[in-house]
Amino acid sequence: MSKNNKDIIVGIDVGSSNVRTIIAQQLREEQQPRIIGISSVPSFGIRRGVIIDVEDVTKSISESLELAERMAGVSVKNAVLNIGGCDIEFQNSKGVIAVGRADGEVTEDDINRVITEAQAVPLPMNKEIVHVIVRKYRLDDKDNIKDPLDMKGVRLEAETLLIESANTNIKNISKCLYQTNIEIDDLVLEPLAAAKSTLSKKQKELGVVLINIGGGTTSLAVYEEGDLVHTAILPVGAGHVTNDIAIGLRTSVEVAEKIKLEYGSALSKEVDKKEGIDLSQIDSQEEGIVSRHHVAEIIEARLEEIFSLVRKELKEIGKDQLLPSGAVLVGGGAKLVHLPELAKEILGLPVQIGFPLGLGGVMDKVDDPSFATVAGLVLWEQEKYVSQKDGFMGFKSFNSLARPAGDTVSKMGSWLKKFLP
Questions:
Q1: How confident is residue 284, by pLDDT bands cut at 50, 70 and 90?
Q2: CB 108: neighbour CB atoms within 10 A?
Q3: Given a cut of 70, is residue 288 above it in pLDDT?
Q4: Does domain 238-300 sit in CATH 3.30.70.3420?
Q5: What is the spatial distance between Cα 97 and Cα 298, in angstroms, rounded to a whole number?
Q6: Confidence band for 417, pLDDT divided at 50, 70 and 90
Q7: Which fold has domain 5-85+169-194+364-396+409-416?
Q8: What is the mean predicted confidence (pLDDT) over 101-121?
């Protein structure tokens, strides 16, 4: 094609409701990746972030890729993907090594070794480490070090958060990409990708929780002093709101989704009790008038559950109502009317909707909270691209970055080969 594929960065967000793809080009004269292709198609074969039908997911990914490739005028060969699902687990770990050089200067090799050491923990047979997130380093008696490179000492320690996923989940997503002839550059935990595109450095320093309301799950990431302090994936999302409406109104899921998007409100008190919704205007097969206030009550009840679960997570880590930058809502479920007001009421925090930042090109097409994750995937990969172009193989900063398990300069694709059929 006309564009250099070495400068192309592709992110694919495989969600429970939609598959979204962004193709971006990293031009040398521009700091931000330029969006040249974008698509969003309904996804099938995924439930609560976990693949249950490889064939259906493969078709959804292929369709999304084809639309984005057509717009961009390039043929995609590599991509970075999100990973989520309620089977994701987390554990704290510590690595300790002796600094290798005789003069005690910490090198890149020392940092890689201490992170590898932190991964040496017993794992269940069905689990695999996806990310190693370095929280802080300690060099001899110096604690809370962000980046020990070139510092001098004898004993180097790293406190990390290990993120683990089921082997079957990794195997299935890799098989889907293998069947579309796409190599996986990296797998990134969903809330970390969304945070990459929506949270500012100041927000992360002061303290903030990102809440990604997806179709099948709600994920969150809590940052303070620039570091990731907690992350979780909850087994309830915007799709459950739709199902509740379908049950409550005795209508189809498709009609319930349209009602949610066109007439839904997160606060029932903001809806006139006399206002009705003519179902025949939504679907010719339906008939009757339903109360819009009743629909809002159904929506509000489920959203209260979601935010109550988020607040429970914050209480468990001692951050309940203690995050100055508040909560940032992203994901398709974040677009409901009056959602920030409800979240503010339940969480006791300032709340805002998050929109993707840091990309150029056709930004108007991704100026939407539902594109936060896929935009973050592109930025995640772009950071590695820039580092390598500048002659540094690996991440520029080791602070709060989730590094792929294993060799930090190798691509995720080689790590995934053992899962391919």
A1: confident
A2: 15
A3: yes
A4: no
A5: 55
A6: low
A7: Nucleotidyltransferase; domain 5 (3.30.420)
A8: 93
Pairing between β-strand 227-234 and β-strand 142-145 as defined by DSSP bridges: unpaired
CATH architecture under which domain 196-236+303-353 falls: 2-Layer Sandwich (3.30)
Note every long-range contact of 70-73, with CB atoms under 8 Å and residues 24 or more positions apart, other chains counting: 70/37, 71/23, 71/36, 71/37, 71/38, 71/39, 72/3, 72/8, 72/23, 72/36, 72/37, 73/1, 73/2, 73/3, 73/36, 73/37
Average pLDDT over residues 326-342: 96
C-beta separation of 326 from 351 below 8 A: yes
CA–CA dist 43, 242 (Å, integer): 16
Q: What tokens appear for 350 in the block?
A: 């300032």
